[in-house]
Specification:
One of its GO terms (molecular function) is olfactory receptor activity. With 324 residues, the protein is mainly α. It contains 13 helices and two strands; from the N terminus they run βααβααααααααααα.
Length: 324
């Protein structure tokens, strides 16, 4: 029997099965999460771009992290809100593969940025006097370009390999967006090559990156423990708190999702759904909040921008405040 033409194929995205046909119960909290994610990351990007004092390695890398988080939110937004706001769960074949490519490429980019941020903290603690001369803007630019190119070319074979499959089984996906692990299980062909390359791609990006992060933090811990003054030790480690939160938010759901997809065949269907949602929806929301609260310069600039905005809207209030 001839396989159906993939060009006209429509995939059906999954929401939360327990909610039945009406998925709109989660519309408000999801809309709120997307507003926080998009606004928070845009605010960080705008402030870092505007303030010359923030054109330092740490903040330029933070801008890269905010950019990838913004990209992830923008990529998942149409399908997630389509399901949970309008009960619309259809996605054309080509659109699905485009979304899949961007999601996996952006995830690889975020992983690379987290490694660069770990190295940044390592240099800042191990060799603070040479920090600015080692991590110049040119070096940061090359690191960003390397992360981008690696993500593009490592992930590119994934949709190319997957598009060649006929999809004659069920067209119902498990998640609210298109993921490689979810799509290949619907293929009517041998998916061994895809599975192997998918694993290789993960190891080449997140696997290698996680090892670099672990080694970096072992060296950071060694350097921090060698500091005799407790206050200086606490201050040094405090500069890593935001980055550690971002690492845990990214890697823990990712590892859990990969393990469940590959080995958890008998696990509840809700587990991979919830892990995928945490993996793609939570970091873009939490990262800008953590960095805004914990990073003094970012917090001060945000407060300054909002005060200036309020003063422009209510000039009378601004004048009275000055004259008090």
């Amino acid at each position: 029997m001839e396989a159906p033409l993939n060009a006209s194929l429509i995939f059906l995205l999954g929401g939360i099965p327990e909610l039945g046909h009406d998925q709109t119960v989660l519309a408000f909290p999801l809309c709120l999460l997307y507003i926080i994610a998009l606004f928070g990351n845009c605010t960080i990007l705008a402030i870092i771009k505007k303030e010359q004092s923030l054109h330092q390695p740490m903040y330029l890398l933070l801008a890269m992290l905010a950019f990838t988080d913004f990209g992830v939110s923008l990529t998942t937004l149409p399908t997630v809100l389509g399901i949970f706001c309008f009960n619309y769960n259809q996605i054309p074949f080509d659109t699905c593969f485009t979304q899949m490519y961007f999601l996996h490429a952006l995830a690889a980019m975020e992983s690379g940025v987290l490694v660069a941020m770990a190295i940044d903290r390592l240099i800042a603690i191990w060799n603070p006097l040479r920090y600015a001369s080692i991590l110049t803007r040119s070096v940061i630019g090359k690191i960003g370009l390397g992360i981008l190119l690696r993500s593009i070319f490592v992930v590119l074979p994934v949709p190319l390999l997957t598009k060649r499959f006929p999809f004659c089984k069920s067209h119902v996906l498990s998640h609210s967006y298109c993921l490689h692990q979810d799509i290949i299980r619907l293929a009517c062909a041998d998916i061994k090559v895809n599975s192997i390359y998918g694993l290789v791609a993960v190891l080449m990006t997140k696997g290698v990156d996680s090892m670099f992060i672990i080694v970096s933090y072992m060296m950071i811990l060694k350097a921090v423990l060698s500091i005799t003054a407790n206050e200086a030790r606490l201050k040094a480690f405090n500069t890593c708190v935001c980055h550690l939160c971002a690492v845990f938010l990214f890697y823990i759901p990712l590892i859990g999702l990969s393990v469940v997809h590959r080995f958890g065949k008998k696990a509840s269907h809700l587990i991979p759904i919830l892990m995928a949602d945490i993996y793609l929806l939570v970091p873009p929301v939490i990262n800008p909040v953590i960095y805004s609260v914990k990073t003094k310069l970012i917090r001060q600039k945000i407060v300054k921008v909002f005060r200036f905005s309020m003063t422009k809207r209510s000039p009378g209030i601004g004048v009275s405040a000055v004259t008090m």
